[in-house]
User: Fold these one by one.
Assistant:
Number 1:
Amino acid sequence: MTQNYEQLLRISIQEVMSGDLPSNGDASTDDQAGNHTQATFTTPEKTHTQDEFPVRSTLAESALTPSAEIAETLAKVEDRQAVDDSSQLSPCETKQLDKLLVSAPYPAATSIDALKVIQKQRGWVSDASLSLLSAYIQVSVAELDSVATFYNLIFRQAVGEVVLHPCDGISCDLMDGVEVRAAISQKLHIKPGETTPDNRFTLIPLPCLGACDKAPVMIASEQVYPHLTLSKIAQLLDELEGNKK
Ligand code: FES
């Protein structure tokens, strides 16, 4: 009996070592007397090497956390934005920049006008556009960025097709400017600094627009709209909405 048990154990160990185990975890053998003996044992978990499951292993190693996923998504969006934002200046842009460079005493003197050229063509000035401009007019990115962020009519973030600049200066506020701005927000369902979901309007109030005698005032699409009233605002927004490209 002892011999049979040892024999059975030896066979089982050999099968475990070779990995050649029955799928149901059963093993059977015949003893020297011809008696059929069946043994049941638990299949040990096989340890897989990294090469066997390279993809799963890589994913496990990366162990993406929610914040890492967000960062990855943002990086993809930025990449996409960079691709969409053409990799070179257009002939139209370079032509206008050349004109500015010829007439300026030194390249940095063209900064604000050069930024306007870019914004006119692209709607706003992205980081990629800033780099292209910097390389072309030979003014550092930092210098251009400081100019762009100083002037509030140069947009460093994407804006809608029409940017509404109602004045929030004191003279306009005394002439119902607060109500006018509230009416714009209410009609478009956006707050200051926001863009409508259809990307049509962006609302950016600005301090005194220099037309206090015409208060309350708003600038939109390079037009000055004076003496605004609540009814004028509703009509004006309808007109601007109807002028979609
Ligand atoms: S305060 Fe609005 S134009 Fe001056």
Number 2:
Amino acid sequence: MILYDHPASANCLKVRILLRQLGLSFERVTVDLFSGETRRPEHLARNPDGRVPVLELDSGDVLPESAAILLYLAEGTPFLPSAPLERARVHQWLFFEQNQVEPGLAVARFMALVGRVGKHPEVFADRLRQGRRSLESLERGLVDPFVAGASYTVADTALYGYVHCASEAGAEPSEYPRITAWLGRVEATPGFVNDLEPITWTDS
Ligand SMILES: N[C@@H](CCC(=O)N[C@@H](CS)C(=O)NCC(=O)O)C(=O)O
């Protein structure tokens, strides 16, 4: 399989974590987020929305969207329960991650790391507000030991992506005791590797 990827993207990190935890081998192809490469025709053919991650299967089929990739890879594994309600809990947190966590924390982190806060302070404040609110909701909803219940699932993998690096967005996960303990439990799951790299590009 080929993962169209960027080392500083936590959306891509989610997929790298699961591929490694499943023991699947994959080739990484970096798509440059900062030069327009994501919007070139060859990448738009992989993902009509022009973003990473995109997973190319051995069949040649391509699958964008981190949550869709996680669900596809986790099918039939302990990372995705088969019972309808247990599975729906995983979906609940995956949708929450995409609707609240990612648009808040991922965008605020990106703006902070590339130096775009001063240019668009209202946008940054709004995204950070949404990100902090999502941390409060997660703190309230987290059950012990994992977000969807007794076992580690792809909902934990997805939420880990932007929650663990929320301080780079200007939020502070260590203010939330349940989140802090949960991050430690996720990092202690077998085969877990966090190789997220810093963003080095700046918007000058
Ligand atoms: N909902 C998507 C979001 C993917 C996304 O926003 N990817 C960013 C990197 S973290 C990207 O490719 N940005 C480049 C662009 O928008 O051109 C997912 O979860 O996979």
